[in-house]
Design goal:
1 helix, globular, mainly beta, single chain
C-alpha cells in the first residue's frame, strides 16, 4: 500500500477544499449509510488541481509515487473531524497498492469504485465552507 493519511469524516455538513501544490495525489471519498458504504470514488490529482470533499464523505489522501506530496486545504474553523469510523475498519473501503485497487475486507458491502476528475480552478466564492 502507498503512503496515505489516516482518514476521517467531518462532524456535520462541512466541506473541504484541497489543492495539490507539488507531486501527485489520489483522494478517496466514501459516504457511509449505517454500517455499509453507499458511495465511493477517487480523484487522481496533479500539481495545481483542486478537490472538493463533499459533505458527509469520509476521505483519505494517497501519495501514489515516491516524490514528496505537498497539499494545502481550506475548511471551516468550526469543523471537527471523526477518525473513529475508519480507524475501526482499519482504513477506507479500498486500498491503493502497487497491484492496483484492493477492497478492504473489513467492510461488508462496498460499491464499485468510480472515478471523478479534479477541478482546474478555485471557486471565487468559498461561502460553502462556513
Amino acid at each position: 500500500e502507498f503512503v496515505r493519511t489516516k482518514g476521517h469524516y467531518h462532524k456535520g455538513k462541512y466541506q473541504e477544499i484541497y489543492k495539490v501544490l507539488d507531486g501527485k495525489a489520489i483522494f478517496l471519498m466514501q459516504k457511509k449509510k449505517n454500517s455499509s458504504i453507499e458511495d465511493v470514488y477517487a480523484i487522481k490529482a496533479n500539481k495545481n488541481d483542486i478537490i472538493i470533499i463533499p459533505s458527509f464523505y469520509g476521505h483519505i489522501t494517497i501519495n501514489p509515487c515516491k516524490k514528496t506530496l505537498k497539499i494545502c486545504n481550506w475548511i471551516s474553523k468550526k469543523c471537527k473531524s471523526n477518525y473513529l469510523p475508519m480507524e475501526k475498519m482499519k482504513g477506507a473501503a479500498y486500498f491503493y497498492t502497487k497491484d492496483g485497487w484492493v477492497k478492504n475486507k473489513n467492510y461488508q458491502k462496498i460499491p464499485k469504485l468510480r472515478f471523478e476528475k479534479p477541478l482546474k480552478k478555485m471557486s471565487k466564492n468559498l461561502d460553502f465552507l462556513r
